[in-house]
Design goal:
Elements (H helix, E strand, L loop, with lengths): L1 H14 L13 H21 L7 H27 L14 H31 L4 H29 L2 H18 L8 H28 L6 H29 L12 H20 L1 H5 L5 H5 L8
């Protein structure tokens, strides 16, 4: 990923023009330290819960998770007085916007289910259906390409009709696809998996652009940077949480062959089933939240941001 990140940095520095007025702000060092401990500990702890052994889970999982929770609590308590004089590292007044709050809720739900699934699905394809890693990668590649292909069309639809239709449709497609995935077993045809992943990609394509655009577009200009930081942080934390949760559920059902030390395909299939059931239940929460995400112009009283 490093070459791609460097290329994006160089191209962005050359091509992306500054459209705002720079201003000096105070740099609160304690907030930076608390945020590093809080969000870093939370992501690290959650990520380790799904893979740590009983001997290491306390040190590698629960301890950093506890440090993260305490750090985030201290971070929030510090931001509340700082934001009253516009000195907060992360201004939490963004959550006064109902559209932003419900968009973040949808983002949490979507990222938990999505990131957990993209970790579990390759395990299913390789360990249960017996596909090779290269075939598994090729099978999942079109889903990502489809999301990229749909992005400009979703943006144009957003500009004309707003976020609600896209979000409700995307949430419904995503949830129904997850429930379909709960039927996967050792005898499932691989092409059904391929079609299901394409449908999941369509649903997520309908979700992500409206969520990002509506959430940030509902904020006043002075809170744009804070809203963007919250969106980025939520993606990482909820993705780590979803991955840890689904991997833990999968692992709890696996039985290992005494001669080879490898988990049996049958027990892995059962674990995959309950992991997908968990993702499906989580995804249902996004459907009612979609109806509360309003066009930003209605809430903020400004021109609606463009979706593409």
């Amino acid at each position: 990923m490093l070459p791609i990140a460097l290329a994006a940095l160089i191209i962005g520095g050359i091509r992306v023009k500054n459209v705002t007025t720079p201003r000096k702000t105070k740099f609160d060092v304690p907030s930076v330290i608390l945020s590093a401990l809080g969000f870093g500990g939370l992501v690290y702890g959650i990520s380790n819960l799904g893979t740590a052994t009983p001997q290491t889970i306390a040190l590698n999982g629960w301890l950093p998770l506890g440090v993260g929770i305490v750090g985030i609590a201290a971070f929030v308590l510090r931001q509340l007085p700082l934001q009253k004089r516009d000195g907060a590292l992360l201004d939490l007044r963004t959550f006064k916007s109902p559209t932003f709050t419900f968009s973040i809720l949808m983002l949490v739900v979507s990222m938990m289910a999505f990131f957990g699934t993209i970790i579990v699905l390759p395990i299913y394809l390789e360990s249960v259906l017996g596909l090779s890693p290269i075939i598994t990668g090729l099978l999942l590649l079109p889903g990502g390409l489809l999301m990229g292909f749909l992005a400009p069309f979703v943006g144009r639809f957003y500009d004309k009709h707003g976020p609600t239709a896209l979000l409700t449709t995307g949430a419904a497609i995503t949830s129904l696809t997850f429930w379909w995935m709960t039927t996967f077993d050792q005898d499932t045809n691989v092409w059904w998996v391929f079609v299901a992943y394409l449908l999941l990609s369509v649903g997520l394509a309908f979700l992500f652009t409206p969520i990002f655009t509506a959430s940030l577009g509902s904020l006043p200009e002075r809170l744009y940077s804070h809203g963007s930081a919250i969106v980025g942080t939520v993606q990482q934390v909820s993705g780590a949480a979803g991955t840890a949760l689904l991997v833990t559920i999968l692992s709890s059902h696996q039985l290992f062959d005494s001669s080879t030390g490898v988990a049996t395909a049958g027990s892995t299939a059962i674990g995959i089933h309950w992991a997908f059931v968990t993702a499906a239940i989580i995804s249902v929460l996004a459907i009612p939240a979609a109806f509360f995400v309003r066009p930003p112009a209605v809430e903020a009283g400004a021109a609606a941001p463009r979706g593409h």
